[in-house]
Amino acid sequence: MPRLTKIYTRTGDQGSTALGDGQRVPKDHPRVQVYGTVDELNSHLGTALALGLSERLAPEAARIQNELFDLGSDLCFPEEAKERFPVPQIQAQAVERLEALIDELTQVVGPLENFILPGGCPAAAQLHVARTVCRRAEREATALARQEPIGPQVLPYLNRLSDALFAMARYENHVRGVAEPLWQPGSP
Q1: Three-class SS state of 124
Q2: DSSP conformational letter for 31
Q3: CB 154 within 8 A of CB 83
Q4: DSSP one-letter code for 182
Q5: Phi-psi region for residue 119, left (φ > 0), alpha (ψ -120 to 50) or beta?
Q6: Under a CB-based contact definition with an 8 Å cutoff, are residues 68 and 38 in contact?
Q7: For 26-75, what is each residue's pLDDT tens digit?
Q8: pLDDT by residue (tens digit) across 134-171?
């Protein structure tokens, strides 16, 4: 477990940062962009938890937050460095757990019959924000994967997580008795 004895180092004052293997890159490097967005996503999940997620979803959100740290670690280390540095990485089981969660929650809320707008109760609305940030992380990871290799489960995990966050938002509204805001095309 890493120990942070000092929060500031001054090593990034000129616009560079170190990847997990020590390699210095600009702070706007695509790899830094994507793991920064994963960190932002994790913060949005923390906000959803702070807003009071339902008893069923709170432990799932906490588990996902830990998985997002694994994902950040996975992305922080270039693939060629992972043989020298054993780091947590997203595993296929995490993707499978998300699929099972989506299936379970969808059985409760029923199939989608219309497009819904992000919103509802505060925690559900925050899960929708997390979902959109997750989609951005997925786009950034896709762009990074065109430039250099990334972990094999990164893209499947992000893809499934955005779907899970959507299902979680629907479930949260359902258990709170809040109607899903429906899209009404062309309405003023």
Answers
A1: helix
A2: H
A3: no
A4: B
A5: left
A6: yes
A7: 778 899 999 999 999 999 999 999 999 999 999 999 999 999 999 999 99
A8: 999 999 999 999 999 999 999 999 999 999 999 999 99
Angle between helices 57-76 and 92-109 (to 10 degrees): 150
Q: For tokens 């990871």, what's the residue?
A: 141
Angle at 149 between CA 159 and CA 71, to 5 degrees: 45
Nearest CA among 155, 163, 54, 47 for reference residue 101: 163
Residue with structure tokens 């893209």? 155
d(CA 91, CA 85): 17
CA dist 160 and 7 (Å) reads: 33
Measured CA angle at 61 (ends 128, 148), to 5 deg: 75
Unique residue bearing structure tokens 């500031």: 8
Closest CA to 130 of 41, 35, 53, 38: 41
CA distance linking residue 68 with residue 74, whole number of Å: 9
Q: Please, which residues have CB within 8 angstroms of residue 179's CB and are 6 or more apart in sequence?
A: 120, 173
The CB density around residue 88, as the number of other CB atoms within 10 Å, is 14
| Structure token digits, residue 124 | 């559900």
Q: For residue 3, give every residue at least 6 positions away whose Cβ sits within 8 Å of its Cβ, in sequence order, or none.
A: none
For 108, phi and psi rounded to 5 degrees? -75, -50
What domains sit in the chain, N to C, each tagged with a CATH number? 24-176 (1.20.1200.10)
